[in-house]
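Quality-control log, excerpt.
Job 1 of 2 completed; input and output follow.
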Amino acid sequence: MSLTAILCLSLVCITPLVVPLTADDDDDTGTAYDLLKGYDFPAGLLPKGVVGYDLDKTTGKFSAYLDGTCSFSLEGSYQLKYKSTINGYISKGRLKNLKGISVKLLLFWVNIVEVVRSGDELEFSVGIASADFAVDNFEESPQCGCGFDCVNGQVRKLRTNPFVSSS
């Protein structure tokens, strides 16, 4: 199986990730989450914990700042990492030249370099491969350390005994 095929198959397992900001000409006081909507993106592209951002409205160049690095696993199947600073260019429905977000595909960490919105779908690209996901998957922001499986900021642990049957 080729590396491209492996990346494509692995990328299909991805859901909530990635970056960004926005700005509205009338409102520069909102959070990065609030402002994402101005560029037609859901807030869940960013994890919880963004402490600030910069945006040059003329070029679309942005930086989003987290209070440190952020990583988490989603549904135990893949891992995401955000650096403390995420950079790129944003325009209506498009994030490009992204730096600071990576996803683990099989044994390799690859950078998410672009996110494009087309209707109700978001296409995530790692350069040589891409995958589409419904925008609805990104309504909620994941939490650093535990993603969506959190209880009081910690990964929820299921207590099960593999030697005991429920039947």
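Job 2 of 2 completed; input and output follow.
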Amino acid sequence: MRLRRRAEVIELGRLIVAPDRQGQGLGTQLLHHAEAVFPHAREIRLFTGEHSAANIRLYKRLGYRENGSTLAGTYRLLHFVKPLA
């Protein structure tokens, strides 16, 4: 997982869980950790491919909302944002 802070926004990229460890809650734990690393951030942003159904379900379950998309070759990248307390 890679995090970048830009003022009060956290940009999350490269959240990857090894295939043999998927479905064990590691993605959820990593997202919760990312949300807590910068306590003064106001939101966290990330994106995933439109066909990444498991990722999309996870992000929505954890309170991320889709806020746009961009074309990347022949598919779309879906952008998500979550306000932080």
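Post-run check on job 2. Residues 2-16+24-83 form a domain with the Aminopeptidase fold (CATH 3.40.630.30).
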